[in-house]
Amino acid sequence: MRRFENKTVVVTGSGRDKGLGQAILQRFADEGANCVVSDLGAPAQHMGAGDIGTTAEMEKIASELRQRGAKVATIPCDVRSEQSCEALAQKAVEAFGSLDIWVNNAGIGYIMKPLLETTASEWDAVLGVNLSGAFFGTKAAARVMIKQGRGGRIINIASQAAKSGFPHMAPYTSSKHGMVGLTRSTAIELGTHGITVNAVCPNHVTTGLGAKQNEYFSKLLGFPSVEAYIENMKRKNPLGRPGFASDTAAACAWLASDDAVYVTGESLNVSGGEEMH
Ligand SMILES: NC(=O)c1ccc[n+]([C@@H]2O[C@H](COP(=O)([O-])OP(=O)(O)OC[C@H]3O[C@@H](n4cnc5c(N)ncnc54)[C@H](O)[C@@H]3O)[C@@H](O)[C@H]2O)c1
C-alpha cells in the first residue's frame, strides 16, 4: 500500500537506531511518505550518556530510509523548546511543500527511582520532554496544518504508563497520563480544522530506552537475569510476547490513514492485551 504518497510526516525523537521513531518512519517510507528524521543531534544536559539520537545516527537512519525509496530530510529539534518545534514544522514545509502527519515521539524513560529519591530537576526533565515537548509539537504542527487548510494528523506516542501506574516511575507515568489529557483536549479544539489527534499506548518494546527499563526492573523485582524477566513478561501477556516497534508503527499508519478519518481523541492500547482500558 502507498497510502501516504505526497504526504509529509515528521517524527520527533526519531534519530536513534532501533527506536520506535525509526520504525514509524520506516513504515511511512514504505507507504510513500516524505520523511523528516528529527532528534537532538547533539548532547543535551537532560539526557543520559548514550541515550541521544546523534547527528551521525540521524544521517544513518535517513540514508536507510532513502534506500527504501523515500524522500528524506533531517532536521534537528529539541522538543523542550517551543521555538525549536516551530522551526521544525516550518523547515519540513520548506523541504517538501506540506506538513500532513506529526508524531510526538521524543521521550525519556531512563530515570527510574523511588519517589522519595526523585528530585525536582529529574521530574522537570521528564515532564519537559515527554509532556511539554508534545504540547509544543502539537502547537507547531497545528499552526501549519490550520494554515494549509486541508486537515492533518497528530499522533502522540504515550505508553501503557498512560493508563496504569508503575513503581519508581512517577515522573514518566505522570507525563504519559498527561499526554492522554493533551490528546483529548486538542482533539476537541482541532476537530473543526479536520485535524485528528490520537495517542498510541505501547507496552514494553526493547528499544534503547526499553533495554534500560528491563535492566532496572529485573533487578528491582529480584529476577536472576534480564532474560528471566522478559520470559515472565511473555507469560503474562495474552498474546505471549512483548511489543515490537513495528506494532506501534502499524498503529500510527492506521491512525494517519483515511480509514481512521472518524477517529479522534483516542488513546489506543497496542499491548497484546496487557492493557484493556
Ligand atoms: N520502548 C518502550 O517500551 C516504550 C513503550 C511505550 C512508550 N514508549 C515511548 O516511545 C517513545 C520512543 O521511545 P523509544 O523506546 O524508541 O526510546 P529511544 O530512546 O530509542 O527514543 C527516544 C528518542 O527521544 C529523543 N529525545 C530525548 N530528548 C529529546 C529532546 N529534548 N528533543 C528531541 N528528542 C529528544 C532521544 O534522543 C531518542 O532518540 C518515547 O516517548 C517513549 O516514552 C516506549
From TrEMBL:
<dbReference type="Pfam" id="PF13561">
    <property type="entry name" value="adh_short_C2"/>
</dbReference>
<dbReference type="GO" id="GO:0016491">
    <property type="term" value="F:oxidoreductase activity"/>
</dbReference>
<comment type="similarity">
    <text>Belongs to the short-chain dehydrogenases/reductases (SDR) family.</text>
</comment>
<dbReference type="InterPro" id="IPR036291">
    <property type="entry name" value="NAD(P)-bd_dom_sf"/>
</dbReference>
<keyword id="KW-0560">Oxidoreductase</keyword>
<dbReference type="InterPro" id="IPR020904">
    <property type="entry name" value="Sc_DH/Rdtase_CS"/>
</dbReference>
<dbReference type="InterPro" id="IPR002347">
    <property type="entry name" value="SDR_fam"/>
</dbReference>
<protein>
    <submittedName>
        <fullName>Diacetyl reductase</fullName>
    </submittedName>
</protein>
